[in-house]
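Quick one:
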Amino acid sequence: MHIRTYHELTEPDRSGLAAQIMAQRRRVAQRLAGVERLIAVMSGKGGVGKSYVTAHAARALARVGRRVGVLDADLNGPAARLLGARDGRLAVREDAIEPAVGADGVRVVSMDQLLADGRPLAFRGPEAESFVWRGAAEAAALREFVADVAWGALDVLFVDLPPGLARFQELAELLPVPPAVLTVTIPTPESGDAVRRALRAALERGATPLGIIENMTGGGFAGTAADDLAAEFGIPVLARIPWHPARDTWDRLGERL
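Output:
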């Protein structure tokens, strides 16, 4: 059985699917027109401190005068809280949402800002079939964040991705060209294996690798994951973040980005 994609629709489609998708792509291009550089922060593994790295890298760039935004595509992620914008208002103007402004002037949009404190994220739909439609609902939320937020003029927009590959693939589909990728790992070989798979998949989609950040170094996690990945993919280790980093650690990372 052959299931057609919207690219193959040649006769009128009652749902208007093709027209809806193309309209959304145009909105995405419009919203991101003022963004000089979009960086997807990914790992392929949970628990490596990816949101923590995203928030502090964004703040470091903002402190040297760069216009920076963070889109929290990890729908259960803490980016808004890490940027001091958990209670920030997302203002609606005309046909767009205005991001909240967090620490050091970083603009941020996160699902966390739309949820009551302590409440879990829940999508409405048939309980017995949630495994069928939940992924589609999460992908739709990402599309709305990209297409309906007025980011304005930014030097850098970080997109904090959840573990796994699904959100990266959906983000790449939305953009005219695949994003640059900043990869986060911890030193352990298990983390290195997960990151390797994610990074290879991103490169196969045409993403540009910026480098690797090794988080939580010098503590209980042992290994050489960052160096191994850097040698394998021919990309730099941009920073090694200790358990209790000083501000200048982040400032040095900002200089390399």
